[in-house]
Amino acid sequence: MWVDWERPSSTTGRGGMPTSTNRTKWPIGGGAFSFQPGWFQGHGSAFIYLNLGLGRIPDNMSHPMITPFEIVGPTNNPYPGTVCLPQVPLPANVSVQVGDLATIQIVELAKHGAALYNCADIEFAEPEDVPEVTRDNCFNSSEIGFRSLFTSSSLQSAAPVNPSPGVSSILLPLMMVVMVRCWMM
């Protein structure tokens, strides 16, 4: 994986690599996806996203394939290990035919804010034309953990909801002065 700030996984931004002419065959009903998350320092934990772009050179990767999740590695230093998702479905409302081309993009978003992008160019095929997924080629290393991402509106802060009148009487005029100065620039 590599960091690509300009246009992740585009034909000009795949870490300097063009679209592949040697595409991996991937089942038309979805299939396995495996990756090694700990190659770079600072990725002891990260959010994982898997997206699909349709066509030979996708304009975008706007079809989420999985619900994002968090991985937790053994250290913040580089570490070995593999994560395998044995059955990644096609995104909702996406239909493909044998021979259609696409690109699968994985995004590893680290807690410090940097994101690593990697892409796999694929060609959809009948399941019997794709190598079988086994415990030897699709496994999760025991030193890598997983967590679900969630949000909650029921969590409450211990901080007061409204600042005291004294604070707002000072902050409001100050904010207005700053806004007027910015507008005048």
Describe the protein in words.
The chain has 185 residues and is mainly beta. The chain has a domain at 24-148: Immunoglobulin-like, CATH 2.60.40. The protein is built from 1 helix and 9 strands; from the N terminus they run βββββββββα. It has one helix at 165-184; strands at 24-27, 31-35, 45-54, 63-64, 69-72, 83-88, 101-110, 115-125, 145-148. The strands form 2 sheets. Strands 1, 3, 4, 5, 7, 8 and 9 form a 7-stranded mixed β-sheet that branches. A two-stranded antiparallel sheet has the order 2-6. It starts with 23 loop residues before the first strand and ends with a helix.
Task: Tell me briefly what this model is.
Pfam families: BIM1-like_dom. Keywords: Cell membrane, Glycoprotein, GPI-anchor, Lipoprotein, Membrane, Signal. With 185 residues, this protein is mainly beta.
Ordered list of secondary-structure elements with their pairings:
Blueprint: E1 24-27, E2 31-35, E3 45-54, E4 63-64, E5 69-72, E6 83-88, E7 101-110, E8 115-125, E9 145-148, H1 165-184
Parallel strand pairs: 1-8
Antiparallel strand pairs: 2-6, 3-4, 3-5, 3-7, 5-9, 7-8
CATH architecture of the domain at 24-148: Sandwich
Low-confidence stretches: 1-7, 9-15
Question: Hey, roughly how much beta strand do the residues contain?
Answer: 25-35%
User: How many angstroms does the end-to-end distance come to?
Assistant: 42 Å
Mean of all residue-level pLDDT scores: 80
Q: What class would the helix/strand composition place it in?
A: mainly beta
CATH class of the domain at 24-148: Mainly Beta
User: What helical percentage do the residues reach?
Assistant: 10-25%
Shape: globular
